[in-house]
Write a structure and sequence with these properties.
This protein has 171 residues and is of the alpha+beta class. It has one domain: Jelly Rolls (Sandwich). The protein is 15% helix and 32% strand. A 5-stranded antiparallel beta sheet has the order 1-2-9-4-7, with no helix packed on it.
Length: 171
Amino acid sequence: MPDTAATKDETLEEKMRRHTATFASRREDWDVFGFETKQDKKYARAQRRYVGASGSVAHTDAKAIPAHAHTLSIMMVPPGHEQPMHGHETEEIFFVLEGECTVVWQKDGERAEVKLGKWDMILSPPTADHCIINHSDQPCWFQVMLGKAKPNRPNYTDPELRRLQAEAVTG
């Protein structure tokens, strides 16, 4: 895969450093889902972007390593908080790093749930809407990967969230 950001005179070490992201260098972004939090405070959560900007923003996070095939971020969902039900045009992987959460899938009126703990993961296909709920009294940290370098913004099942999202994009 071509590395368009590389310069001809760049050393291997310089290239390696450009492709390295540390936890300390990632900003805990509580605003990226701000329009969701306008509707309900339980949707507040933080994202640290590592590769690409995921489907949550306009793919312009200057600190994220440019994505070529997928995105990667770390999400923290506080106790009692959750993501709103949504879907993507691509698969999404959730890998729990610390804590516990419940993943819910919903399709054609059917609903399924699975509880995940540390080192557990789930691959959500593009065919099922999903959300993550933290029912515990501890934060849940998980890695999120979307299977596309520049995925579309989430497709919410709630019409009010779709309206707020459209306002956030154009506003």
